[in-house]
């Protein structure tokens, strides 16, 4: 397939895309605010300091916030003609940045797997090494993060160049699309999605086996249950993203999506991505007793401050 040029300022928008964008924007603001709040709650809460699990949760918060913000500049804004001027300003200010932001969507896909898988590996370590698994220092967490950054870039080495290149030509913002590279990238994502699904299922099965074999575990039952539920639900939510990636790649070869679904494929991909990217704070609030108690405590304190002290009316004022 030959390369082609898209004039990004000539884009049109439909009701479905616009509605999804508004909902995504509102949900994104609420979810990111909640993630920032929980990030600092974990930072300063005494009950979280000794648990590696919460350091990994903070890592997830950072990557999820950056990923969601990146999708707006890489994908969402260009779908809305009234907002393309923002991309034009970015390209004027930092030439070449937009093509890297588009690539980061693929990079974050792999980062998501490793951050989700770390929670699963953590719960296995909590059983195998109950006395030592929480003694990993913050420096080790930084090393883990650097390794994830590097490993998540390795799939990019399978194809050369960028999928899209953005330029300003004669005052107009254009995108040069390389369809062959895009198709290769989609296939690579599909292959890794299958690998990730297999790894998630394998580690989940191994964890179950360890639980059945090691009945006498020193950790408290409630803590184990919290770690298990949180990481399990989070992994299952991530499965939705990788399954959609496999279906999307298969559709590029066999074209079994309906015309309407094909037209809104990008919109649905963003929905699936948001479900995973924005889900962790809600999973923690519902399943993690420590987080739930602290959030409820903060909520009650805020309610008390807002309501203030009830006014006392003297009887003499009515005499």
UniProtKB/TrEMBL annotation:
Tagged with keyword Membrane:
yes
Q: Where are the transmembrane segments?
A: 20-44, 133-154, 188-212, 233-256, 268-287
The GO annotation for biological process reads: sensory perception of chemical stimulus
Membrane-protein topology:
Multi-pass membrane protein
The UniProt GO MF terms for this protein read: transmembrane signaling receptor activity
Coarse class of the protein's main subcellular location: membrane
Which key words are in the record?
Membrane, Transmembrane, Transmembrane helix
Asked if the keyword Transcription regulation belongs to this entry, the reply reads: no
Give the location in the cell.
Membrane
Pfam families membership = Srg (PF02118)
Can you quote a single GO CC term? membrane
Q: Which PANTHER family match?
A: SERPENTINE RECEPTOR CLASS GAMMA
Task: Indicate the family of this protein.
Answer: Belongs to the nematode receptor-like protein srg family.
Name the record gives this protein: Serpentine receptor class gamma
